[in-house]
Inverse folding.
């Protein structure tokens, strides 16, 4: 990996920039897109070279490939294992252990699950939180939310993104998936799952405009308005794709006609390709407006894959990684991440300050918590006082360096039931611990321990062989849980279940 001798002090200090110098930022977030749901390879060999796997040959994402050629992608980028916790972490820069939205938010009833903590944050993000868009809004940015929000339940402050610092909110609310992707169905208002009807897109009702396309048109319109008003903008482009229901984006179905894969897998692939077209359409529009050189795109998924291929804990939908959305394995938590200027031009002031390495794979890990401090540093916006941040500024890594200041650690806490239930994941370097709380037998937790360098697919559980390493990892995990104020599962009598060391 090419080394850069110095990092622009301005970007690390958060020193103020003049408004006309400030870059635009797009967070392009894809729902339920895992690391392997793309034709762009993220996994590497021992020398850091990209390795293609069969799933990379199944999906078609040419615009992701385009973005990666001119920017940097991360081989290891972690999210929470389900939606709302990741989205809250992006908005706050905090781990779910700290913001306490530890499960996806079901809009109409509390889904803490039988042994989940009673006081978990079902309300989601509240008005008083110094969210990323609020801080940028106060610094003079036009803040735009398009698509899925899922920041809070119905009736909570977090239900409305405008309560959280967005100037503009289109198609966002408490729902976690669309009632339908079809304009003919009114995105759920006319036909489909009406409780999850997508709000605010009435002008497309009864048309053949696929939801992904409608959101792209709305995003480009808002970009146009910000440019006309001479405002730097922060666009949170949060697609409902590629979440279920796996409805076919008919624009792309013929590309998969010859496959023997199940129809739902083909439908999922069309959702992926439609999302990728949206990325390309927005990049093209940025260039048409003459602002591509001053616009940074941060592309990522919000949790592991939910591709309808194979079982939840095997090596299928995320192969060669194990697992998928909602569980404790790498396929449930690893997501794609790409950072790139929409159009590279090293002569521009912003790109001189942040010369993102082109076509590079960053091997050091990153997390969804990192977007908050990174965007603020990039835009010259000061970090808010009295707001704890668990993420790290990614700018050294975007320059192709290793950030020696960040530990090679990640903790993901899920005190609820899902495909994986009542667990904490703790990664430190090559080692990964999965700790299972046992609500029915509180003094008999279960453990899994993997060396990810030797065993990327999490096949060989060495917990009974590496007992000293296991004890060390459990102790470190427990210490971090306490430091971040984690909420724990409970047993059948209502007693709190903390880790047994």
């Amino acid at each position: 990996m090419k080394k850069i001798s110095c990092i622009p002090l301005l970007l690390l200090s958060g020193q103020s920039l003049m408004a006309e110098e400030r870059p635009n930022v797009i967070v392009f977030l894809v729902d339920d897109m895992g690391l392997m749901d793309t034709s762009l390879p993220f996994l590497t060999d021992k020398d850091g070279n990209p390795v293609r796997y069969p799933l990379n040959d199944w999906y078609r994402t040419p615009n992701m490939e385009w973005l990666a050629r001119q920017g940097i992608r991360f081989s290891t980028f972690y999210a929470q294992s389900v939606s709302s916790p990741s989205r809250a972490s992006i908005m706050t820069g905090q781990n779910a252990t700290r913001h306490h939205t530890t499960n996806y938010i079901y809009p109409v009833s509390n889904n803490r699950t039988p042994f989940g903590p009673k006081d978990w944050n079902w309300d989601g993000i509240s008005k008083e939180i110094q969210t990323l868009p609020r801080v940028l809004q106060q610094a003079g940015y036009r803040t735009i939310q398009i698509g899925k929000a899922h920041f809070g339940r119905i009736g909570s402050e977090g239900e409305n993104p405008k309560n959280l610092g967005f100037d503009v909110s289109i198609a966002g609310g408490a729902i976690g998936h669309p009632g339908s992707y079809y304009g003919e169905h009114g995105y759920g208002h006319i036909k489909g799952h009406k409780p999850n009807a997508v709000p605010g897109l009435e002008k497309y009702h009864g048309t053949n405009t696929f939801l992904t396309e409608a959101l792209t048109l709305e995003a480009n319109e808002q970009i146009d308005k910000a440019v006309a008003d001479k405002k730097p903008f922060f666009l949170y482009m949060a697609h409902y794709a590629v979440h279920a229901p796996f409805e076919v984006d008919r624009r792309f179905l013929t590309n998969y006609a010859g496959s023997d894969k199940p129809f739902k897998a083909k439908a999922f692939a069309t959702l992926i390709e439609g999302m990728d077209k949206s990325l390309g359409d927005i990049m093209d529009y940025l260039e048409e407006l003459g602002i591509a050189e001053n616009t940074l795109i941060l592309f990522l998924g919000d949790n592991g894959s939910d591709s309808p291929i194979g079982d939840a804990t095997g090596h299928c939908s995320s192969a060669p990684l194990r697992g998928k959305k909602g569980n404790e394995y790498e396929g449930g938590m690893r997501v794609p991440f790409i950072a790139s200027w929409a159009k590279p031009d090293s002569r521009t002031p912003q790109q001189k300050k942040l010369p993102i390495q082109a076509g590079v794979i960053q091997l050091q890990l990153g997390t969804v918590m990192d977007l908050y401090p990174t965007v603020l540093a990039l835009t010259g916006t000061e970090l808010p006082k009295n707001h704890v941040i668990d993420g790290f500024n990614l700018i050294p890594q975007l320059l192709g360096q290793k950030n020696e200041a960040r530990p090679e650690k990640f903790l993901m806490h899920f005190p609820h039931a899902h495909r994986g239930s009542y667990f904490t994941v703790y990664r430190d370097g090559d080692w990964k611990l999965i700790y299972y709380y046992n609500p029915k037998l509180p003094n008999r937790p279960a453990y899994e321990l993997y060396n990810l360098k030797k065993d990327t697919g999490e096949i060989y559980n060495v917990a009974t062989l590496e007992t000293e390493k296991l004890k060390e990892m459990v102790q470190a995990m427990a210490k971090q849980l306490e430091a971040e104020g984690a909420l724990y599962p409970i047993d059948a009598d209502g007693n709190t279940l903390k880790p047994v060391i």
